[in-house]
Amino acid sequence: MTLPLGIAVRASSTWEKLSHYRGGAGMPRSSQDREESAVLWRLLATHSGHRIAALYEDTSRLNALYVGDGGPDMIGGDADGDITFERFLDGWREGDVAGLSPIGHGVLRCLEDGGQLWLGAAYGPGPGEVSFFHVAAPGGPGNSTDDPVNRSLWRFLAEHVMHELSVDAVPATPTAAIGTDGGPSFDDYVCGWPG
Question: What is the rounded distance in angstroms from the CA atom of residue 40 to the CA atom of residue 35?
Fold first, then answer.
């Protein structure tokens, strides 16, 4: 499954690290697009326990996904068979903890440099079935609408472009992760960030 993150804006003259992602002309920065942010957070929950990567368009790693018959489903694309944002989000209840229990703590880890972003409590119907990650207390805003939390995810993806990442639900809050006591706060992490 793939999700276009937007236009990559470089942090320097190289493509090794991005500043942020933005939409097309007249569109907000990707981190400010609430619908796309909700899709991204649901995609992470759906793929808890999987490895993911933010890839540049037309790279060998991305092109390898499209060998043979088709390729992975695309969310938000405009081709026949692509999944619309509306369809992907249909029935998703981000932050609605009714009938769900915390089943661990979500963490997005970079397998190349060890960076970690805390995603919040993992809620779902049972082990291995994450419905959503939630940083706020029950009843608080969902991660996609919590500005510093949401922007932290987008910044983490920009800083770890082309790296292999792991989305995990772990038993305890990770140490030294962004958003935890051992790491920078979400507010500090995105302070002054242009995305």
Answer: 9
The helix (H) or strand (E) run that includes residue 157 is helix 147-159
Hunting for tokens 């038993």 — which residue is that? 171
Collapsed DSSP state (helix, strand, coil) of residue 101: strand
Joined tokens for residue 68: 């043979």
Beta bridge partners of 51: 166
How many whole angstroms separate alpha carbon 19 and alpha carbon 58?
A: 19
The pTM (predicted TM-score) of the whole model is 0.90
Torsion of CA 181, 161, 17, 35, to 10 degrees: -70
How is 23-90 classified by DSSP, letter by letter? -STTPPBGGG-HHHHHHHHHHHHHTTTSEE----TT-HHHHGGGSSS--S-BBS--STTPBPHHHHHT
Tokens of 23: 């939409």
**Where do the structural domains in the chain lie, given as residue ranges?**
7-190
Report the candidate in 120, 114, 105, 192 with the shortest Cα–Cα distance to residue 153: 120
Residue 173 and residue 194: Cα distance in Å, rounded? 28
Quote the CA–CA distance of 181 and 83 in Å, as a whole number: 38
| Percent of the chain whose pLDDT exceeds 90 | 56
**pLDDT tens-digit profile of 16-41?**
677 887 777 777 788 999 999 999 99
Please name every residue paired with 107 in a beta bridge, in sequence order, or none if there are none: 118, 168
